[in-house]
Amino acid sequence: MPDSPSAPLSEFDLIRRFFTRPVHKAALGVGDDCALIEGRPGHQLAISTDMLVSGRHFFPDVPPRSLGHKALAVNLSDLAAMGAEPRAFTLALALPEADPHWLGELAAGMLALADDHGCELIGGDTTRGPLTLSITVFGDVPPRQALRRDAARPGDDIWISGTLGDARLALGDCRGEWLLPEPDFTIIRPRMDTPTPRVALGLALRGIAHAALDISDGLIGDLGHILARSAVGAIVDVDSLPRSEILGAQPLDRQHECVLAGGDDYELCFTAPAGAREAIAAIGRQLGLPVTRAGTITAEPGLRIVDRDGNPCAFAGAGFDHFAAP
Ligand code: ADP
Ligand code: MG
Questions:
Q1: How far apart are CA 267 and CA 59, in angstroms?
Q2: What is the helix (H) or strand (E) element at residue 270, kind and residue range?
Q3: Are 122 and 189 contained in the same domain?
Q4: Ligand 1 atom having least distance to the Cα of 121
Q5: What is the pLDDT of residue 324?
Q6: What are 34-71's pLDDT values in tens digits?
């Protein structure tokens, strides 16, 4: 009786029960050796994979509904950063055990976000092993409209969506690096556990922004990728970086740590010519998402962080690196 709550779930029961859903856009979904998707005429397929490892990217006891949401959100965020429209995803899952309640919650969080974005689960792989989720997303983008990291040009403005640093601020509380008042923690915790991929913003920026990426490892490190790929430099005003009221009330060095080097915000950092300022502000208003100008792309290489008076900022941290970090 595979569907009785007490019977052990076989691999195939599990896939059928939690991860098999009718598909509408795909030609063939879960159940065969491959899924089949049609290339959208006149578009390129944008493809990205992101893996979440227990104890590395999330606490082992994180609520499974949040985990399901986050695993897909970080992948949708990559599509957003490319200006691609979500279409489908696959899910590779390593599980220490098949707990139906846990799996039901995981699937609920993941599939609710998938539905919000019309992104269909079309296949995957399931195995026993240390808890790991790896998702591959597929999206559509018209040729030459993808927001690539190598497209920043000297003179471009640097823009940031939403606010930075709250995910890092919440993480610091969980790790005991600092303690926030309970109500503040409750407000910012979703920024760490259930980030919002800025998909609509990425789509709206097609043809307007030059370069873009999503901030997953901290602004300094991630902006550094745009600078390296585009062979340019940048000057960033740390005081203009958007932050929540809660983060803005923290000691300044903590604010700097969180907005400059805090990962996991999944906001977009993008560059655009000064002529696009009005259009970008209008997009922000239309989406109800603040967009803030925080710096300039320069021809000279290197990233200079300054305060509002133009003095160099003393912050010494860097972006997150899985192999450099202890
Ligand atoms: P194969 O033996 O060809 O690798 P599997 O037995 O692993 O196929 O998977 C059977 C079907 O279930 C395939 O269509 C596969 O894409 C799908 N599938 C397996 N695991 C998952 C999962 N976690 N989520 C969605 N689909 C899955
Ligand atoms: Mg398989």
A1: 22
A2: strand 268-272
A3: no
A4: 25
A5: 58
A6: 999 998 999 999 999 999 999 999 999 999 999 999 99
Would the CB of 247 count as within 6 Å of ligand 1? no
Query: Residue whose CA is closest, atom 11 of ligand 1?
Result: 31
Q: Identify residues whose C-beta is under 5 A from ligand 2, the ion.
A: 125
Structure tokens at 303: 């990233």
Pairwise CA distance, residues 175 & 178, whole Å = 8
* Domain termination site, one of 94, 110, 141: 141
Please work out whether the CB of residue 126 comes within 6 Å of at least one atom of ligand 1: yes
123 and 162 belong to one structural domain: no
Asked if residue 147 is part of any domain, the answer here is no
Q: How close is the Cα of 40 to the center of ligand 2, in Å?
A: 26
Whether the pTM exceeds 0.70: the reply is: yes
pLDDT of residue 314: 76
One domain for residues 102 and 170: no
Residue with tokens 């997150």: 320
Q: Is the CB of 135 under 6 A from ligand 1?
A: no
Helix axes 64-82, 182-193, angle to 10 degrees: 60
Summarize pLDDT for 98-110 with one digit per residue, the tens.
999 999 999 999 9
**Residue 125 Cβ contacting ligand 1 at under 6 Å:** yes
